[in-house]
Amino acid sequence: MAWLKMGMDEIGGRYVEEERKLLVGIDLGKEITQMSCFDFTTYEPVPIGRKVHGERVYEIPTALAVNPEYGEWYWIDEEYAGREGVICLKYLLADVVRDDKITVGRYSFESYQVLKRFLVKLLSILKEYYPTEMIRKLVITTSKKEKRLTEYLVRICEEIGIPKNGLVVQNYRQSYMYYALSQPKELWSNNVGMFELEGNELLYSQIDIDRKTVPYIIGVTRKDLSDGIDWEGLAEEGDAHISYAFLNAANTALHKQLVTTVYVTGKGFEHEWANKALQELCAGRRVFRGQNLFTRGACYAARELSGEGKLEQCLFLDEEMIACNVSLRVYKDAVMQEVMLAKAGSLWSEVDSSVDVIPDDEEEIQITIQDVLKHETKAHMLSLSGFAGRDNKMTRFTIRIRFADNLTCIVTLKDNGFGEFCPSSNRVWERYITV
């Protein structure tokens, strides 16, 4: 049998978590960034905005201005940003994703440092609302998870005092799922649709709910409806043309789909033509329009991922999430039991958990994979033969679980020895398991 060694640092870690209270969601958009924080009095996300001419503005340009001569950074809409010698970085997010350097004229800036400046300025606004409280969970949502951007955000948050387990980066589809399922249940009694219109891009996302299982399996599909539609050209021809094009694309996407709630978001829906078009779309459906869906969805996700949520009956799944529970069978507290190392619905890129075990006359360790979609459970036996030659109970192993993608689990076994009695061999054993 394998004995699980419990670490004393767990107690200290729990104490620190209690000091961190803020649950924050940030929609890091290409042009506009929005931030919200969960309010435990209303149990809803509240918008966080910066003061401009004495009034709170909740749509913050994803851009900065810098005076390279003095190293001074400003919001791009500040008065100082218009002065001579100041450089405006209008496409900050696109620049960061594209390269590790941002070059403007004879000046070059590290993408990482520019993004850090932006995030620090953004979070300083939060301090105006909550000057003494710390962030417990921060969820940053973007249209698409980019590797460089995600790595930068993790590094930045660690540098400014937000631990790795306090940050989650997720895409808009996932924030949409958290938003929709956090609404009153009658709004998701059937499937839920969402249209996004930005520039010439029209996207449709649909949440499908499988209620045959407990918990409910929540999936989302996303379609690009932009092909063949020149929105800017149609706008020149008049509202009737653009309204017709949208309704034609929307009704095609919704045809024979049991969708009774529809959300629409994006600057494209702020034009006059959208009012009449959305009224027609309302026939037999409830339609909601707004521009803060993703920041609120990220904030709801922060609540759920911090353990404060109310969606235990729902399991969110898409291609970036794992569809299985991964557990380790151990002897603990005088009984054999399964210790959970990864939960179904977790982002595969976020899974990184480990435990220490001391084998007791064991030649193998059992990892259990439970597929919640196929309702199958498989046991994988990990041989310890490569670590032979030690006296019984004189070896402590660290078992670490990560994922290479949503279908490939990485199990790492490291020999830690047993203190002064049995030095570590520093051997590391790794196995890939297809789930």
Give the gist of this structure:
The protein is built from 9 helices and 28 strands. It is α+β, with helices and mostly antiparallel strands and 435 residues long. The longest helix has 19 residues, at 111-129.
Cα gyration radius (Å): 25 Å
| Secondary-structure content class | alpha+beta
Distance between the first and last residues' Cα: 25 Å
Number of helices: 9
The total tally of domains equals 3
Strand content: 35-45%
CATH superfamily of the largest domain: ATPase, nucleotide binding domain
**What is the global morphology?**
globular
The name of the CATH architecture of the largest domain is: 2-Layer Sandwich
- Using DSSP, what is the number of strands? 28
- How helical, in percent, are the residues? 10-25%
Instruction: Give unreliable regions as ranges.
Output: 1-18
CATH top level label of the largest domain: Alpha Beta
Summed over residues and divided by their number, the pLDDT gives a mean of 88
At CATH level 3, the topology of the largest domain is Nucleotidyltransferase, domain 5
Q: Major beta sheet, specifics? A: 6 strands, mixed
Structure report:
The protein has 435 residues and is α+β, with helices and mostly antiparallel strands. It folds into three domains: 22-170, 2-Layer Sandwich (Nucleotidyltransferase, domain 5); 175-295, Nucleotidyltransferase, domain 5 (2-Layer Sandwich); 320-434, Sandwich (Substrate Binding Domain Of DNAk, Chain A, domain 1). Helices cover 24% and strands 40% of the residues. It is built from nine helices and 28 strands. Strand 8 and strand 9 form a beta hairpin. It starts with a strand and ends with a strand. Mean pLDDT is 88; it is low at 1-18.
